[in-house]
Amino acid sequence: MSRFPARQSSANQNAARLRDNQRRHRARVKAHTAELEAQLAETKARLDAALDEIAHLTSEVESLSRGLVTERNVPRALPTVRASSPAAAAHLPSVFGPPIRDESPRPHCSGNCNQDQTHVDGEAHATQPDILVVMMSGRDCKDLPAPQSGESTAPCIDAYKVIEQQNFSGLDVVEITRWLKPGFRKAAEKGGGCRVDTQLLFALLDHISSTDGL
């Protein structure tokens, strides 16, 4: 009997096994590729979400550094930030602008006092304005130093709003003055209102939050 049919059958079986192996290999490669594509899509979605969050946080940081406040309403007088006593109010720095005269009644002048003496007495009773009045006034404070090169400043009125929102500990005006006085700057442009160094403003806000509830 000839052996050729047996050899042909064996060759056919080998070819069939080879095709099966190739099919299984292609199936494994296809499944692995699909898995990698799914992981890639998931990773890309997480990356896009992270980039959106970074962009949002960056925008918030930039807005805060420029002293921008989203609340547009004119702020109320701050009840918790005030001079603790008339004596404390008298120590407010003169850098905040011209004094506000005391309009309380004066003793009646006798015949031997002149108008000059009355004027001097009026000046003696002058009091410095509340820091928050100055911050809200929008005056350009021409006597203040100009912002330094590269210095980040915020409008005083925006600084007031931030302090109003954060001053839960009731920090008084003398303490606020101590923090902000070195950072007051004249207006960046005519009629723009005074400005304050944001580094000092952030330090003050950090101090307020650290003393809140003590």
From TrEMBL:
Keyword Cell membrane: no
Keyword Coiled coil: yes
Coiled coil start-end: 26-67
Gene3D superfamilies (UniProt xref): 1.20.5.170
Source domain of life: Eukaryota
Stretches for region Disordered: 1-26
Keywords of the record: Coiled coil
Annotated protein name in UniProt: BZIP domain-containing protein
Species for this entry: Microdochium bolleyi
Taxon lineage: Eukaryota, Fungi, Dikarya, Ascomycota, Pezizomycotina
